[in-house]
Amino acid sequence: MVNFMKKWQVLFLAVVFILGLTLAGCSQKQLQSKPGTTAVYKATDIRGKELSFSKKPQHIVCTYVFADEILLDLVSHDRIAGLDRWVHDPELSSAVKEARDVKTIVENNTESILKVKPDLVLLPPYVKPEMIDSLEEVGLKVFVYKDSRRLHEIPNMIRSIASAVGETSRGEELVATLNKDLDAVKKMKKPGNPEEKALMFMRFGAFGGKGTIYNDVLTELGFNDCYNTVRKETVTGQNLKGILSKEEVVKANPDVFLMALWTQGGAYDDSKMQLQEMYSDPAFATVNAVKNKRAYIFPQRLVNSLSHHAGKNLIELAELLK
Questions:
Q1: Is the N end or the C end of the chain the one with fewer CB atoms within 10 Å?
Q2: Homologous superfamily of domain range 11-181
Q3: Mind listing the pLDDT tens digit for each residue in 8-20?
Q4: Maximum pairwise Cα distance, the chain
Q5: 297 pairs with which residues across the strands?
Q6: Has domain 197-321 been given CATH number 3.40.50.1980?
Q7: Model pTM?
Q8: Over the stretch 153-212, which tens digit does the pLDDT of each residue have?
Q9: Helix (H, G, I), strand (E, B), or coil: what is residue 114?
Q10: DSSP code of 145?
């Protein structure tokens, strides 16, 4: 019964949205059907779908924190209709200050997006196809941008989003800033060295290995990510099956714990509590990082930023670890 009512609620909002567009005379289909209408620019998303724009979108919705960070520096904020809630979380977001004047929070679901009547919806590739279909069925422009999971993939994500909002030149400026910061990281004196084994701890446990941004970060900082000494497979994204067990952490025997703090709005213990539990657990007594009390706690935004802020965040983290 609840699901039935929710479907009718979404359908009602969709009908209201369509009527609003029709009455305002601003339906994209209407614009394209007018004789002599010429697209100002076109953008092709990760699906291979080409979108034509008769003008730059002025009411953009984005529902992923790192894409939000990029969008905030691509367009004037009066062109943003709503952003993901986590862009306002200082433990995760690198754009809390920039996002202060964008008050509207949009959840990653059809109903929430329809409420703000956007003229462009930016979505990551992991969104369910049914959600994309439902948004496009009511006439919304949906652009599925190139996602990034690694440091070297961030420029493509920036360029993809920039192409959709009609700001390719500004996108190249953000890419140049990122590359400049990453070059600065490479020239810095590293806080670690290749002989030092390190493990990255997230709110749900030890995570990393080849194929993850956490491995990228440890490598850039000069540490030896010892994740793959006990887990041989390559992990992508944030697959929780990739979390090391207590026995695997002991076997990896890291010299340093790097603790990325994000409680996810209080859903998880903070890193200080997590660390104290490990320090007091007899099972970890033989681990070098525990014996020598070598652990660093810092906001998670410093190690998993997937926007143009990643370079400056690495510089901040490198300075913190010295």
A1: N
A2: Nitrogenase molybdenum iron protein domain (3.40.50.1980)
A3: 454 444 444 444 4
A4: 76
A5: 259
A6: yes
A7: 0.85
A8: 999 999 999 999 999 999 999 999 999 999 999 999 999 988 999 999 988 899 999 989
A9: helix
A10: P
